[in-house]
């Protein structure tokens, strides 16, 4: 029973943490950069291991942060020199991810650091890998996710107004003298930290899903950023909890089912949200057509 609770807590923390970060990824139209970073941090993780010869979580996060900044910087350089944004992301994503895979093969073949584990993860094993801090013993994944969640909250509290202005009107933000370059790379670093915090437990696939799908669902449901943030976190939690019990019911991958549940929630909102859902609109058009015909 306790192990089940830790799995649910871990999944919910992934949903909350990624939900917070994902809102501004969606609003800033950077969803595909999140996908790229969630894979290119593998390069940073391997480089951190090669340099330190340890899988300590702190060094992994530092390596991931550097890889995230490098990804954002290279995409920006290619884009500013005439390459389209999607092509820039594709080039950087595939190159750094492939480099990470090669480095694992060459220098980390005997270490518990494989591509399948990074991509898919195994959240069911979370309760057995624990850390004790200030006399409190909890799974390592929970400690890391709590730390990154606090970083996310702190960043949003401190830079909320700056992020909001630069997201909707970057020209006005520039005229106010806001540090746009700093905000951009600080935010990319935060995305990298969020990604690597969830790697060991849930893998990159669920991280990408939680970064993009709950925030996209919140976007459909909300008219303000604050409501979108709350909606995104709520959808993340529902996806984690619902996905876990669906996975138990169908005896399948927990992380995969959590991602699938997030997608199902999005589709339900897309089809049936009040006033603007696809099926709701079609029904209204049908009723109007019937009235006109009569």
TrEMBL record:
It comes from the Bacteria. InterPro entries: ABC_BtuC-like, ABC_TroCD. It is found in: Cell membrane. It is a multi-pass membrane protein. Its main location: membrane. The chain crosses the membrane at residues 6-26, 33-51, 57-75, 87-109, 141-160, 172-196, 202-221, 228-247, 253-275. Keywords: Cell membrane, Membrane, Transmembrane, Transmembrane helix, Transport. Belongs to the ABC-3 integral membrane protein family. This is Metal ABC transporter permease. It comes from Viridibacillus soli. The lineage of its organism: Bacteria, Bacillati, Bacillota, Bacilli, Bacillales.
């Amino acid at each position: 029973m306790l192990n089940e609770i830790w799995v649910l807590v871990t999944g919910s923390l992934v949903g909350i943490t990624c939900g917070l970060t994902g809102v501004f990824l969606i609003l800033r139209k950077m969803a595909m950069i999140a996908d790229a970073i969630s894979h290119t941090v593998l390069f940073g993780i391997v480089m951190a291991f090669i340099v330190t010869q340890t899988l300590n979580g702190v060094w992994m996060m530092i390596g991931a942060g550097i890889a995230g900044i490098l990804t954002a910087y290279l995409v920006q350089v290619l884009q500013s020199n005439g390459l389209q944004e999607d092509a820039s992301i594709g080039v950087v994503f595939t190159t750094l991810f492939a480099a990470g895979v090669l480095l694992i093969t060459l220098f980390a073949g005997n270490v518990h650091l494989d591509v399948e584990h990074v991509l898919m993860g195994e959240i069911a094993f979370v309760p057995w890998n624990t850390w004790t801090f200030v006399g409190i013993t909890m799974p390592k994944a929970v400690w890391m996710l709590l730390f990154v969640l606090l970083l996310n909250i702190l960043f949003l509290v401190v830079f909320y107004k700056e992020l909001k202005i630069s997201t909707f009107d970057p020209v006005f933000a520039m005229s106010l003298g806001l540090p746009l370059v700093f905000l951009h790379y600080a935010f990319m670093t935060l995305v990298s930290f969020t990604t690597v915090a969830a790697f060991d437990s849930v893998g990159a696939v669920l991280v990408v899903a939680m970064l993009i799908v709950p925030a996209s669902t919140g976007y459909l449901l909300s008219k303000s950023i604050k409501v979108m943030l709350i909606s995104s976190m709520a959808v993340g939690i529902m996806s984690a909890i619902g996905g876990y019990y669906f996975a138990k019911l169908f005896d399948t991958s927990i992380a995969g089912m959590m991602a699938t549940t997030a997608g199902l929630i999005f589709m339900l909102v897309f089809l049936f949200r009040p006033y603007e859902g696809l099926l709701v609109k079609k029904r209204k058009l049908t009723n109007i057509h019937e009235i006109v015909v009569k």
